[in-house]
Design brief:
Radius of gyration: 22 Å
Number of helices: 22
Strand content: under 5%
Largest sheet: none
Distance between the termini: 72 Å
Structural class: mainly alpha
Number of strands: 0
Length: about 450
């Protein structure tokens, strides 16, 4: 007799409360949500590149350098603190965290107003001084996001989060397209950013279950948040240079038009790593917390299997994007953006070392070891900035892109140091994907060689 479906394995995975069931559902929802989000971003990108000029995207790239910088230079690790703390479900702890978050958001907006004029002068972009104080309002708005968002992540409850994220992006996309059609300027992107932040706050506040946050300051909770967050703060400071260093440096060397084209190539090439990062942050911290790999060989083997599957999926996506780079740009965009094809290919190839090491740093956060996490982030940032500066000085844009890939390769010994301490290092995984990935990326460069030669010809630091 067949086993009834409610008792079957599929039903347990879909409805069960076991960690493995939650993890599988979480991965599925994360991939669905992230995929939907990126599809919406691509649709938005394709429409807006036809309504606006490349300079608008270059300007917004500079705007978000400063926005990301302010976020990172003030991040005290509220989300990872809630996810890893034993008090992560305690009301006083959550309300204290929310209070810190609200205060931080208000202070960040003040900082955008102060930085607006100097930033405009440094990049010789007067409009930047007008845009920063307006787009800075999104920092105030996000400061009021409820901690129910972090609680849902902590317990791998992603259903409503996924729906809210997609719905918010749909509204933001519609507003951006309408504003771009009417205004035909970068202000369309500014308006959609502010209104999109308000819409997301409203959705999170009304549609996530749980108690509403209130202002609260418990000394014990604030001490725990600050003590854990001090290394997270330092990590996110250097993380800013890691994630935005290319825009900071290239924004000084390239025209706004070329920077906007670079941003298109980067947007498409970064899809696999962004997906992998989202999955590891959402899924692996709870799994590492509940089943530390150092605790038993069985825990290590389960995590090894997950790592192999995740890396295989991401490498397939990365290699596919790299091989189709030139063709994708030709099909999706008009001739003004043709240079983005070669940029897409080189960035995808340069990201291979990051893909191999993707899951290791989250083990440190899950164990509360924010100090080693900071050391790894600092090493990555220093080497990447050095690679960018030396590369762009010697060989222009192509040199800067290659410098990033070399930097992420040189930092690998630090990755191994952290992974060994947490009991997560898997040399078999790393060697297998390094060999396979290198072969696939070499093939992608061969297929797209005409697009690479266009970057070589651009060599104008």
């Amino acid at each position: 007799m067949n086993t009834p479906l409610p008792q079957g394995r599929l039903a347990r995975l879909l409805r069960g409360d076991a960690l493995s069931a939650k993890a599988i559902r979480g991965v599925a929802l994360t991939i669905f949500g992230f995929g939907g989000s990126q599809v919406l971003r691509l649709i938005s990108n394709l429409i807006l590149t036809r309504l606006l000029f490349p300079e608008a995207f270059g300007m917004m790239a500079l705007v978000y350098v400063f926005m990301q910088g302010l976020n990172n230079f003030s991040d005290v690790g509220i989300t990872p603190s809630i996810m890893q703390s034993k008090r992560g479900d305690d009301r006083d702890f959550l309300n204290t965290a929310w209070t810190i978050q609200v205060i931080r958001g208000a202070l960040l907006w003040v900082c955008t107003c102060i930085l607006a004029y100097p930033a405009a002068q440094f990049y010789d972009a007067p409009q930047l001084g007008q845009i920063l104080p307006i787009i800075g309002l999104t920092l105030v708005i996000s400061g009021f996001n409820p901690t129910r968002l972090d609680t849902a992540n902590r317990h791998l409850q992603f259903g409503r989060l996924t729906a809210i994220d997609i719905a918010s992006q749909v509204v933001s996309l519609i507003i951006a397209v309408i504003a771009a059609w009417i205004l035909g300027s970068v202000w369309a992107l500014v308006i959609s950013g502010v209104i999109g932040g308000l819409v997301q706050l409203a959705f999170l506040s009304f549609f996530l279950p749980g108690e509403r946050n209130r202002f609260r300051w418990e000394k014990e909770a604030s001490n725990e948040l600050i003590n854990f967050g001090k290394w997270i703060f330092l990590s996110t400071v250097v993380g800013f240079f890691l994630s935005q260093g290319d825009k900071i440096i290239l924004g000084k060397y390239l025209s706004l038009e070329t920077l906007g084209i670079y941003n298109i190539g980067f947007f498409l090439a970064s899809f696999p790593l962004l997906l992998g990062g989202t999955v590891t942050r959402r899924i692996l911290i709870p799994i590492y917390r509940e089943r530390p790999p150092k605790e038993s060989r069985a825990n290590f083997k389960k995590l090894q299997k997950m790592r192999f599957l995740l890396s295989a999926a991401l490498l397939c996506m990365m290699a596919s994007l790299a091989m189709m780079g030139s063709w994708l740009i030709e099909v999706l965009y008009d001739p003004r953006y043709i240079l983005a094809g070669g940029i897409l290919v080189v960035i995808a190839c340069a990201q291979l070392p990051q893909l191999i090491a993707l899951t290791y740093d989250q083990a440190a956060l899950a164990a509360g070891d924010s100090k080693r996490f900071f050391v790894l982030a600092l090493s990555r940032a220093v080497l990447m900035i050095a690679g960018l500066v030396i590369g762009v000085e010697l060989y222009g844009l192509l040199g800067a892109l290659m410098g990033q890939g070399l930097a992420m390769t040189l930092v690998f010994p630090v990755v191994v140091w952290l992974a060994r301490h947490q009991g997560t290092w898997d040399p078999v995984h790393d060697a297998a994907y390094a060999g396979l990935g290198t072969a696939l990326m070499a093939l992608a460069v061969y297929i797209n060689w005409p697009a690479i030669t266009a970057l070589i010809a651009l060599n104008s630091p």
